[in-house]
Amino acid sequence: MPIRRLDPNRYNTGKPIAADADADWNGNNAAFTCPVCSKVFIVTSFNELGRIGLRCPGCGKSTAYITGSAAKGGEARIEWEWDTGEAAN
Ligand SMILES: [Zn+2]
C-alpha cells in the first residue's frame, strides 16, 4: 500500500516556499488530495480520527493520519489502495 508522508519542514514556515501544491499542514490539521479520487479533505489530531485514520469521504479508498503538529515532531501521512495508476512503492 503506497504511503505519502508530508515533510514538516515545508509547512508552517510563514514563507512562500515551494510546498506541495496538493496538500497543506497547519498545526494539528493536515489537508490531503486523495490519490484515488482527487477529493480534498482535512484530518486533525484534535480527535481520535487523526490516530486511527480518516478514510477519504469521496471514495473511501485512501486513509489520512496525523499525530501531533508539524512544528513539534508530528507526522502527517496518507495511505491508499493500489488501483490508482500510481507507481507502487
Ligand atoms: Zn478518495
Essential attributes:
89 residues, mainly beta, three-stranded antiparallel beta sheet, 1 helix, 7 strands, globular, binds zinc ion
Describe this entry's structure for a reader.
By secondary structure, the protein is mainly β. The chain has one domain (3-12, 22-80). The chain is 4% helix and 34% strand. Strands 1-7-6-5 form a four-stranded antiparallel β-sheet. Strands 2-3-4 form a three-stranded antiparallel β-sheet, with no helix packed on it. The longest helix has 4 residues, at 49-52. Zinc ion binds at residues 34, 36-37, 39, 56, 58-59, 61-62.
Query: Radius of gyration, rounded?
Result: 13 Å
Percentage of residues assigned to helices: under 10%
Could you list the spans in which at least 5 consecutive residues all have pLDDT below 50? none
Tell me the strand percentage band: 25-35%
The total number of structural domains is: 1
Structural class, judged by helices and strands? Answer: mainly beta
Bound molecules: zinc ion
**N-to-C order of helices and strands:** EEEEHEEE
Distance between the termini: 8 Å
Described by strand count, sense and barrel closure, the largest sheet is: 4 strands, antiparallel
Envelope shape? globular
Number of separate helices:
1
Average pLDDT figure: 89
Number of strands: 7
* Strand order in the sheet with the most strands: 1-7-6-5
